[in-house]
From TrEMBL:
It holds the Pfam family Aminotran_1_2. It comes from the Bacteria. In the C-terminal section; belongs to the class-I pyridoxal-phosphate-dependent aminotransferase family. The keyword Lyase does not apply. This is DNA-binding transcriptional MocR family regulator. One of its GO terms (molecular function) is pyridoxal phosphate binding. Keywords: DNA-binding, Pyridoxal phosphate, Transcription, Transcription regulation. CDD domains: AAT_like, WHTH_GntR. InterPro entries: Aminotransferase_I/II_large, HTH_trans_reg/aminotransferase, PyrdxlP-dep_Trfase, PyrdxlP-dep_Trfase_major, Tscrpt_reg_HTH_GntR, WH-like_DNA-bd_sf, WH_DNA-bd_sf. Residues 7-75 form the HTH gntR-type domain. The keyword Repressor does not apply.
Length: 435
């Protein structure tokens, strides 16, 4: 392969690799020649080859695997949340909220009216900013923070990483991990470092190892972690803050996606002295995914950088949407619906876990929209059995970061909208599938 790469300068070598990839001569996943070997064949200085590989890395064409070499990037499809398309099966892996438990926006539309907002005006509605500051300050240890409004939590995380990192920078992710976080880190060209999650959230040893590996950002779900439902305990949160005390400039992003629906108190990795942080709360789970709005509370420097990426005329969030979200979040009837939804998800998931335990399958609802169920058999085998019985479940394989060669023994179920008869049938079919 090294014989096909040509060039005398870094730019020429990088262009040669790009052309070979575009022509299909070099396939995704191919390892490029070692720097010293390629430099010797081309008759150039080793630093020239290093610079060429750096250009390719910054362009997202290759990724460095350390001693394992430099590899052409593989853009594998990443699983997405939501309903599966083109299937006649009953989908119980969607991760969706119940549409019947999302407040009706038409009841507050009259409160949304106001004068048009023009270019050059503040990008955040003043009333929403004031409300969000009060909402966030109750759980954010830092006193000096600013509010930014984005088009959902995924948009917030993508912008937060982009303003702080370069390609190949390391990002600590929970393992198993939220699908959108995996997708965001992969598309951004960052290197994911897995931090195991147990029943109390991120593990201390896992975070310590990730920091030793040079992570520049950490994405954590303090409660209702997706997919496991785990929430940080006070003891675990304190231990994690102690580890982070020596790394105040590592960006800590807390994704509190379940916020108003959660049964658990909020525990934070962010200490009062931490310098780079963001607490992100989306309204998607309780006002609906189509609302596409999230609030981020960040340190002032991060807020300034985010503001540059949300300037008027580019990508600021519609003030009409901001006013609508605020009207719903402050409406008594809407808030009552959100409280009913929280009770519904908890009750239905708890009841389904009890059904599974009655069949000898260990399961417990901790918090969140879904159930994370450990199986005695590989999840793919169980999934195939359930498909023959008319069910489509989501296996744990897509959520795993570390050892993807070992089959997952978990399935994630979204069952809060099942009736009693359907719930009984699904439990019976799962029990039959695991033998």
């Amino acid at each position: 392969m090294s014989e096909q790469i040509t060039g005398r300068t870094a730019a020429e070598i990088a262009d040669s690799v790009r052309e070979l990839r575009e022509r299909g001569v070099l396939a995704p996943g191919t390892l490029l020649p070692p720097v010293r070997e390629l430099a010797a064949r081309l008759g150039v200085n080793r630093n020239t080859t290093v610079a060429a590989y750096r250009q390719l890395s910054q362009a997202g064409i290759v990724v460095s695997r350390g001693r394992a070499g430099t590899m052409l990037v593989e853009h594998d499809a990443v699983a997405q949340e939501g309903y599966a398309s083109d299937t006649v099966l009953r989908d119980v892996g969607t991760g969706n909220p119940d549409p019947a438990l999302i407040p009706d926006p038409s009841t507050v539309l009259s409160k949304v009216s106001g004068r048009p907002v023009l270019y050059g005006e503040p990008v955040i509605d003043p009333a929403l900013d004031a409300w969000a500051r009060e909402w966030m300050s109750a759980d954010l240890p830092a006193e000096d923070f600013r509010i930014t409004v984005t088009s959902g939590a995924v948009d917030a995380v993508e912008r937060l990483l982009a303003q702080a990192l370069m390609r190949d920078d390391a990002v600590a992710l929970e393992d198993p991990c939220f699908l959108a976080s995996i997708h965001t880190v992969r598309l951004g060209g960052y290197r994911a470092v897995a931090v195991p999650v147990d029943e109390e959230g991120m593990t201390v040893d896992g975070l310590r190892a990730a920091l030793a590996d040079g992570v520049r950002a950490i994405i954590c779900t303090p409660r209702a972690q997706n997919p496991t439902g785990a929430s940080l305990s006070p003891t675990r949160a304190a231990a994690l803050r102690e580890v982070l005390a020596a790394h105040p400039y590592v960006l800590v992003i807390e994704d509190d996606h379940f916020s108003m629906l959660s049964e658990r108190p909020y525990e934070s990795l962010i200490s009062p002295t931490h310098r780079r942080f963001a607490l992100v709360r989306s309204v998607s789970k309780f006002l609906g995914p189509d609302m596409c709005l999230a609030v981020a509370a960040t340190d002032p420097e991060t807020a300034d950088r985010l503001a540059m990426r949300l300037s008027p005329g580019t990508t600021w969030v519609s003030h009409l949407l901001q006013r609508l979200a605020l009207a719903m979040l402050t409406d008594d009837a809407a808030r009552a619906t959100i409280r009913s939804a929280a009770a519904h998800y908890a009750a239905r998931n708890t009841a389904f876990a009890e059904r599974l335990r009655a069949r000898g399958i260990p399961a417990e609802h901790v918090d969140g929209m879904n159930l994370w169920v450990r199986l005695p058999r590989p999840a793919r085998e169980v999934s195939e059995h359930l498909m023959r019985r008319g069910w489509l479940v989501r296996t744990g394989d897509g959520f795993v970061l570390e050892d993807k060669t070992a089959p997952s023994h978990h399935i994630r179920l979204t069952v809060h909208d099942l009736g009693e008869e359907d719930a009984d049938q699904l439990v019976a079919d799962i029990a039959a599938a695991v033998g």
